[in-house]
Amino acid sequence: MQASAPPPSPGAAVSIHNLWKRFGRQAAVAGLNLELPAGAFIGLVGPNGAGKTTTLSMTTGLLRPDEGTVLIHGADVWADPVAVKARIGILPEGLRMFERLSGRELLQYNGRLRGLPGAEVDRRTEELLGVLDLTADADKLVADYSTGMRKKIGLAAALLHNPDVLFLDEPFEGVDPVSAQTIRGVLKRYAAAGSTVVFSSHVMELVEQLCDWVAVVNAGQVIAHGPLDEVRGGRSLHAAFLELIGVREDDGQALGWLGGDR
Ligand SMILES: Nc1ncnc2c1ncn2[C@@H]1O[C@H](COP(=O)(O)OP(=O)(O)OP(=O)(O)O)[C@@H](O)[C@H]1O
């Protein structure tokens, strides 16, 4: 989008340069710069309203930035969308799906849309349904899926074309521990094969377990990034996060009425 963007670092899966998005007078993303290394399992963390979803939406071609450039393996998301979309998988927050298709039909439709041969679509569909423990519900309509099942079928749809980079916005929100374990297993296997995973989460323990690289976003900018151990600097990620964000101490005055004499 801008001619002046510097070349991406070699080895970067995602290069974000001077990204801006304003909603009215508020800047949701305010000149954000970030280089995400290829082959890493990356956690994007930040408080509510920090700009994570807006950043991920602009990075994956779902929301047009006001300013800035995003490159995925060197291809510009907005100038070369077809090339970029072939290389990425996305599980957005509040994903809208074709509700009147069954889970199996949804995957088959996605596979055909991606240009995969029919036999390969069928093979991958059945394998993904099996690994994600959805085979028994494969003929149920997506409209009748639970929250966890929706996340799993959304993940299967995002993985079907074997993308180089997978973006997930809050993939574990509303997911029970059993489904979360299944999703974790699939993501670990995908990342172990050298692909890049970028996911946003509020759950620091999960980010610490899964990620080897983190970026902390606050007020539309990146305030810390790098290998997990560097960012947490000998503390838990939770403690490092609170310190980086500058959490306000409770002065004990507010809500003094709450739980007191009635
Ligand atoms: N479509 C929109 N219209 C107006 N304001 C918006 C819109 N989308 C996001 N915002 C605002 O932009 C800011 C960043 O929102 P965003 O959803 O990107 O944050 P987030 O870090 O993903 O938050 P959370 O962790 O709560 O999901 C918030 O103040 C939000 O209210």
Describe it:
With 262 residues, the chain is an alpha/beta fold. It has a single domain (12-245), classed as Rossmann fold (3-Layer(aba) Sandwich). Helix content is 34%, strand content 24%. The chain has helices at residues 52-59, 81-87, 103-113, 118-131, 147-159, 177-192, 204-210, 228-232, 237-245, and strands at residues 12-23, 26-37, 41-45, 67-72, 75-76, 88-91, 165-169, 196-200, 213-218, 221-227. The strands form two sheets. Strands 6-7-8-3-9-10 form a six-stranded mixed beta sheet, with helices on both faces. Strands 2-1-4-5 form a four-stranded antiparallel beta sheet, with helices on one face. Helix 6 (177-192) links the parallel strand 7 and strand 8 (196-200). The protein is globular and about 60 Å long. It starts with 11 loop residues before the first strand and ends in a 17-residue tail after the last helix. 39% of the residues are buried. The model has no long low-confidence stretch (mean pLDDT 91). The structure holds adenosine-5'-triphosphate.
Highlighted features:
six-stranded mixed sheet; 10 strands; alpha/beta; 262 residues; transport; four-stranded antiparallel sheet; Rossmann fold; 24% strand; 34% helix; ABC_transporter_ATP-binding; binds adenosine-5'-triphosphate; single chain
Summarize the structure.
With 262 residues, the protein is of the alpha/beta class. It has a single domain (12-245), classed as 3-Layer(aba) Sandwich (Rossmann fold), CATH 3.40.50. 34% of the residues lie in helices and 24% in strands.
Secondary-structure map:
Layout: E1 12-23, E2 26-37, E3 41-45, H1 52-59, E4 67-72, E5 75-76, H2 81-87, E6 88-91, H3 103-113, H4 118-131, H5 147-159, E7 165-169, H6 177-192, E8 196-200, H7 204-210, E9 213-218, E10 221-227, H8 228-232, H9 237-245
Parallel strand pairs: 3-8, 3-9, 6-7, 7-8
Antiparallel strand pairs: 1-2, 1-4, 4-5, 9-10
The structure holds adenosine-5'-triphosphate (ATP).
The site of adenosine-5'-triphosphate has 10 residues, from helix 1.
